[in-house]
Specification:
This protein is an alpha/beta fold. It has a single domain, classed as 3-Layer(aba) Sandwich (Rossmann fold). It contains seven helices and nine strands, in the order βαβββαββαβαβααβα. The longest helix is centred in the last third of the chain and has 16 residues.
Length: 201
């Protein structure tokens, strides 16, 4: 459901982390952001949903009204976007990537599978797309339950979605199985460092 971007952004590199919910991609992304030598900056997504709890505009998301979001789609303002649920949109603004590249940094995304693959298709040479895989669907369900943030119905929905998302793993440049977090963090660092240093084949 993405529109083509008319933007000429092509300065830095794009590091995409995608995974089923509960796989640990957010933990990995936060770890990599702390490694100053990688020179990464987090891409903040835009959304049409309401703020939750103590979320902050411009930090957690850019909160747009439904009308604003749709106007941005019409004007090709998004690098990628998706209607996750009816009238519930998420996307990456071109201006967000340009903001980070203007700082002289590389962009790192914590983004859903479809959005990650869209970015890879648009910038195939500049993008490293990494899929974080849970050891198993059963383990994923255990992790989601341990969060204690969602109902069993919601967890079951996420698990069902995860099965479809896992099928897309071969479309990514690299698959990291998060069985042991320390090993997954090291493997992620090594893969990203090699890509940014042009050491990858």
């Amino acid at each position: 459901m993405a529109k083509k971007s008319s933007s000429k952004i092509n300065k830095g590199k794009l590091i995409v982390f995608s995974a089923p919910s509960g796989s640990g991609k957010t933990t990995i992304v936060r770890h990599l952001l702390k490694q100053e030598e990688l020179n990464l900056e987090f891409s903040i997504s835009a959304t049409s949903r309401e703020k939750r709890g103590d979320e902050v505009d411009g930090k957690d998301y850019y909160y747009l009204s439904l009308k604003e979001f749709k106007n941005n789609i019409k004007s090709d303002a998004f690098l990628e976007w998706e209607e996750v649920y009816r009238d519930n949109f998420y996307g990456t603004l071109n201006s967000e990537v340009e903001r980070i590249w203007a700082m002289g940094k590389h962009v790192i995304f914590d983004i859903d599978v479809s959005g990650g693959l869209r970015i890879k298709r648009k910038f195939p040479q500049q993008t490293l797309a990494i899929f974080v895989k849970p050891p198993s669907i059963d383990e994923l369900k255990i992790r989601l339950k341990k969060r204690k943030t969602e109902s069993i119905d919601k967890i079951n929905m996420r698990v069902a979605k995860a099965s479809a998302e896992l099928a897309t793993a071969p479309l990514f440049d690299c698959v990291i199985v998060n069985n042991n977090l320390e090993e997954a963090l090291k493997e992620s660092y090594d893969v990203v460092d090699a890509f940014l240093s042009d050491k990858n084949p």
